[in-house]
Design brief:
alpha+beta; Aminopeptidase; seven-stranded mixed beta sheet; 7 strands; Acyl_CoA_acyltransferase; ribonucleoprotein; protein-N-terminal-alanine acetyltransferase activity; transferase; ribosomal protein
């Protein structure tokens, strides 16, 4: 796999991407989404999941956003461990911010684990601000930090 960002393609997720997506999901989260969950996102009218593909069409990362009226929300995002810290996650989030803006969103929100300092740092760099916390939101009792990007 090539690590050069100029060879990354961001495109709509398809069912054929799910094996790669699930491999990343399982290695990224203690309670990963299932194939059924991703299939539901692919079919949901307000969702528009995306993947980042390398030159050989291998899934490097993915993001599952939704847009309801003027409110965007990022439900799930992860990058293959080989590509973390190389800009793939940034590209995915920036694409969602662009797409939501084009579709009339006034803001995009998300929840992130308090312990996920790299993701929180990325979101802050991109202009997200903290708006609150959800106590014991995650399965291990960890709080979620609520963040929003306002256009």
């Amino acid at each position: 796999m090539d690590n050069r960002l100029e060879e990354i393609t961001i495109c709509p997720m398809s069912e054929s991407d799910l094996d790669g997506v699930l491999a990343i999901e399982i290695n990224s989260f203690p309670r990963p989404w299932t194939r059924t969950h991703f299939l539901a996102e692919l079919e949901a009218p307000h969702s528009f999941p995306l993947v980042a593909l390398d030159a050989e069409n291998n899934v490097m990362g993915y993001i599952c956003p939704m847009l309801v009226l003027d409110e965007g929300h990022i439900l799930d995002v992860a990058v293959h461990s080989n590509y973390r810290g190389k800009g793939v996650g940034r590209m995915l989030v920036e694409r969602v911010l662009y797409d939501c803006s084009e579709k009339g969103a006034e803001f995009v929100s998300l929840e992130v684990r308090l312990s996920n300092e790299s993701a929180i740092g990325l979101y802050r760099q991109l202009g997200f601000v903290e708006t609150g916390r959800r106590k014991a939101y995650y399965e291990n009792g960890e709080d979620a930090l609520l963040m929003e990007y306002i256009y």
